[in-house]
Design a protein that fits this description.
- By secondary structure, this protein is an alpha/beta fold.
- It has a domain of 233 residues: 3-Layer(aba) Sandwich (Aspartate Aminotransferase, domain 2), CATH 3.40.640.
- The chain is 33% helix and 13% strand.
- It has 12 helices and 14 strands.
- The strands form 3 sheets. A 7-stranded mixed β-sheet has the order 1-9-8-5-4-2-3, sandwiched between helices. Strands 10-12-14-13 form a 4-stranded antiparallel β-sheet.
- Helix 4 links the parallel strand 2 and strand 3.
- Helix 2 runs parallel beside helix 8, helix 3 crosses helix 7 and helix 8 crosses helix 12.
- The longest helix is centred in the middle third of the chain and has 31 residues.
- The protein starts with 27 loop residues before the first helix and ends with a helix.
- The structure holds pyridoxal-5'-phosphate.
- The site of pyridoxal-5'-phosphate has 14 residues, from helix 3.
Length: 413
């Protein structure tokens, strides 16, 4: 640590000069698995073969049993899950507001109306009250994203949904292996969707995704929905059953995913250890609070969320984050804006120029509805993110806390 009390943002030495360690997620094991997949008996690589079947089985075992379809992205997984749920077009789907674009775009692409629920106060996740406030007689599904690997409060959401017969999709793209009251996320709702793109807890290579369910009928509809409507799981003689895209994963990706899956428990454990160590090390800070898992949950920390109480500082939260970043710590002021701020949503730019699906006569809600998201709007005033992963350790913890303390000291009220 080469640190002076002069802040790096004012020209002093930063706490840390080296970047955080690289993730180096893929090793020789994955490379060998990829070579094996290519060099099988047919010397070619396909899809739906032994590797994919084994990957799906192994992921189902990881989830404690159930049915798995491997697809080619998390976005595709959500698209397939919603399609397989057979939600009539022009119904409303309540969605977590802060999510990856792929966590919401499948909704309008299926002619469904995305409705943003607010977040909890000072949190990227939505909550039961926020979802309940968005229910209408037009609500047909709920998509809940466990952002940053921190589980959403699922049981009350399931109660709300069950009371109305509405299916719940858990978006677990950022939360492989996270637990809510001991239960793995993705097993609580009707269907769980995962992204396995390169940066996720475990990956199938560049891109990939998973649809998980414990409902066998839904699973067969998922399979048909990800493979051009092939009559998979239907009686002999059935022909192409539904109009659908080809969203299959390849056996190459599955071969990589199988090796990764074996590493996942260790990856999760290391991320949890880092998160706990950072929270402990920051316990005496006055203006900064590391967000761990909500009560009775085990988060898996895709990134860390840190709260700042700007009322204890002479600077804004944004300036605080800028000063911490200048100390060599990979922090960012925000994760992503609520999707209701995106141009495609504001301009209703999904199909053609007439604002479909909102403007379809079958949609009986207000096509121009604007939703208040007070907690979500305020979250960027008090929460920021720290990029971390399973290779971050003691040094990264101590440098991060040193930088946070240095900036807090300098600007304490
Ligand atoms: C919450 C969430 N949903 C959906 C997606 C989309 O996944 P993909 O990038 O694999 O399409 C992501 C990707 O980061 C995500 O974080």
């Amino acid at each position: 640590m080469t640190c002076t009390s002069v802040l790096a943002i004012d020209g002093g030495d930063p706490v840390r000069t080296a970047p955080f360690p690289p993730r180096d997620l893929l090793s020789d094991e994955e490379k060998q698995a990829a070579v094996r997949a290519i060099g099988g008996t047919m010397s070619e690589v396909g899809y739906g073969g032994d590797e994919e079947i084994a990957y799906c089985d192994e992921f189902a075992q990881f989830m404690g049993g159930g049915y798995v379809d491997a697809v080619n992205s998390g976005t595709a997984a959500l698209y397939v899950a919603l399609k397989a749920l057979q939600i009539e077009p022009f119904g409303e789907v309540i969605v977590s507001p802060i999510t990856d674009p792929g966590g919401v775009m499948p909704v309008p692409l299926l002619n469904l109306i995305p409705v943003p629920a607010d977040t909890l106060p000072r949190d990227f996740n939505t909550g039961p009250e926020q979802i309940e406030a968005r229910l209408t007689k037009r609500t047909r599904a709920i998509v809940v994203a466990h952002i940053a690997g921190r589980p959403v409060d699922m049981y009350p959401i399931m109660e709300i949904a069950r009371a109305r017969g509405i299916p719940v999709v858990e978006d677990c793209a950022q939360s492989h292996g996270a637990r809510y009251h001991g239960q793995l996320v993705g097993t609580i709702g009707d269907v769980g969707v995962f992204s396995t793109m390169a940066g996720k807890h475990h990956t199938t290579g560049g891109q990939g995704g998973i649809v998980f369910t414990r409902d066998e009928d839904l699973y067969w509809r998922v399979r048909r929905s990800s493979d051009r409507g092939k009559p998979i799981g239907l009686p002999q003689g059935a022909t192409y059953a539904t109009a659908a895209l080809n969203l299959n994963l390849s056996d190459l990706g599955a071969a990589i995913g199988r090796v990764q899956l074996r590493k996942l428990p260790d990856i999760i454990g290391r991320r949890q250890a880092f998160a706990q160590a950072l929270a402990d090390a920051c316990a005496d800070l006055k203006a900064v609070k590391v967000q761990l898992s909500p009560p009775d949950c085990e988060g898996v920390f895709w990134f860390m969320t840190i709260e700042v109480d700007a009322s204890r500082l002479t600077i804004s939260k944004s300036r605080f984050v800028e000063a911490v970043a200048a100390e060599g710590i990979p922090v960012a002021d925000r994760y992503v804006q609520a999707f209701s701020h995106f141009d495609w949503y504001i301009n209703r730019d999904v199909f053609g120029a007439r604002g479909l699906p909102w403007t379809a006569p079958q949609y009986t809600g207000d096509p121009d509805a604007v939703y208040d998201l007070p907690n979500c709007d305020a979250v960027d005033d008090c929460v920021f993110r720290l990029a971390m992963h399973e290779r971050c350790g003691d040094e990264e913890v101590s440098d991060t806390v040193a930088a946070l303390a240095k900036i807090e000291d300098a600007y304490a009220k």
